[in-house]
Every structure is written in C-alpha cells, then in structure tokens.
Amino acid sequence: MAERSGMVEKRGAGHWFTHLGLIVGVLIIFFPIWLAFVASTVTQPEIVKPPMPLWPGGHFFENYRSALVSGINAPVARMLGNSLVMALGIALGKIAISLLSAFAIVYFRFPGRRLFFWLIFLTLMLPVEVRIVPTYEVVAGFGMLNSYSGLIFPLIASATATFLFRQFFMTVPDELAEAARVDGARPMRFFLDILLPMSRTNIAALFVILFIYGWNQYLWPLLITTDPQMNTIVMGIKQMFPSGDDVADWPVIMATSILAMVPPIVVVISMQNLFIRGLVDSEK
C-alpha cells in the first residue's frame, strides 16, 4: 500500500511540474504581446522614456482610432480588409481545389493518374520564392497586378492539402462508393453528400493553417501591389517603421500590430475544437 501511495505522489508531482512548465511557457510567449498591447494604450513620451509602463494607459480608444483611420500610405482598416480577403480567398481556394484534385485521383481511373499525383507532390520542392519571377510575369500578362485575383490565384494550389485529402479518401471504405453507385448517385453527388461531410474536421484543420498562411504573406503582395490601397496589413506594419531620421509613432504601430493579430486569433479560437479533432482524429 505504501508503494502504491508513493507512486501516486510521484505521479501527482509530475502532473504539477508539467502544468507549471506549461504556465511558464505561456507567460514567456504572452509577455511580448502584453507589452505591445500596453504600448498601444499609452502616449509616445511614456514609451520612449524608461522604464516602459507595464500596465495599460488611458489612450486606448484614441490610439486605436488613429490606427484604423490613418497609415503611411493607406488606412489600417483598408489594409486589414485586403488581408482578410486575401487570406479567405487563399484558404477557401486551396481547400476547394485540393478536395477536387484528391477526389479525382482516388476515385477516377484515367491514364497517368499516379504520375499526375506525384507531379503535384513534387511542387512541394518549389516554394513561391523559387518560381516568383515567372509567376509575376504570368500575373502581369493577365493584367492582375493590384487586384485581389492577383493576390489570391497564384497561391491557391496546394500539394500538401491535396496529399492530405488523398490519404483521407483512401481510408474511406469502398463499400460507401459501391452503395452510392447502386443507389444511382453520380460521382459529384457522392462527393457532396458523403465525402465532404466526412472531411469536415480535416477541412477545418487545414482552413486554420491556410488562413494564417495567407494572412502572413508578405513577399508576394509586396511584389505585385504598387497601389497603396491594395497593401496588406503585414506590408503596412513594415511601412510604419521609420527610415532615416524619422520618428516612429510607436503607440499607433503597436495598435496596428495588435489589430493584425485579431483575425487569426478569432479563427483559431472559433475553430479550435474542429482543428484539434482534424489533427488527432484516429479515423482520418
């Protein structure tokens, strides 16, 4: 009995140490975000004069209002909208194309389907930075510079998502496809009524990842947008930093940085249950 109680005590100590380590890690990660939030609620002199305050000030609404309506080249509200359209377009476009591609590769028999799959998979070796010059030439040739289509279309193909959906579809029992065929369901009806609902958790997990991927894009928007009204929020934050002898408006910069974090955080929190199930579901 004593040995068993000792084992329980050791397990309990490990449990508390694990949670303590988790709390310390969260505090280390959260502290810079807290400093950015505090800096967005105080005045410029309070930031540049040490020591920097650790508690929010009384200029929250003033600084955030200034951030939303102002900007170096475009209002922050406009740049947030551009980033939101780009991130949603990339995430939804990648998922739609990947679902259809994986469906065709798994459920249709046509010559060279394995070759086409591996050609898609090989594009993982070619990130945007490698093919950015020919991609820019194609986008410019179609007249899609300074447009949402130019921001979205070159980035909506995803070999990773196609691979993941293919692997999931291959685990679906063949009896489902046979039953749908016997009931007279056409391929797209089988896809929409059976495969798509079964892929819900996988779609949610990929949507969160791809939304953040699209939201954080910097190089591609920087290359194809020359109109300030098409700037994204990541570009806007970079442009707010001073050059030369200019003085940075740190409260507005920090308020813009906090605003840039809000949409990804909302997406992650609102879809966290589906996101976790999509990553760890043993049936996928």
UniProtKB/TrEMBL annotation:
Record GO cellular component, one term: plasma membrane
Subcellular location, record wording: Cell inner membrane; Cell membrane
GO biological process, one term: transmembrane transport
Membrane topology: Multi-pass membrane protein
Spans traversing the lipid bilayer: 20-42, 84-108, 115-136, 148-169, 190-213, 250-269
Chief place of localization: membrane
Chain ranges of the ABC transmembrane type-1 domain: 80-271
InterPro entries: MetI-like (IPR000515), MetI-like_sf (IPR035906)
Xref: CDD domains: TM_PBP2
Keyword entries, A-Z: Cell inner membrane, Cell membrane, Membrane, Transmembrane, Transmembrane helix, Transport
Cited function: Part of the ABC transporter complex UgpBAEC involved in sn-glycerol-3-phosphate (G3P) import. Probably responsible for the translocation of the substrate across the membrane.
Database matches in NCBIfam families: PRK10973.1 (NF008210)
Family designation: Belongs to the binding-protein-dependent transport system permease family.
Assembly information from the UniProt record: The complex is composed of two ATP-binding proteins (UgpC), two transmembrane proteins (UgpA and UgpE) and a solute-binding protein (UgpB).
PANTHER family registered for this protein in UniProt: ABC TRANSPORTER PERMEASE PROTEIN MG189-RELATED-RELATED, SN-GLYCEROL-3-PHOSPHATE TRANSPORT SYSTEM PERMEASE PROTEIN UGPE
Protein name (record): sn-glycerol-3-phosphate transport system permease protein UgpE
Lineage: Bacteria, Pseudomonadati, Pseudomonadota, Alphaproteobacteria, Rhodobacterales
Encoding gene (name): ugpE
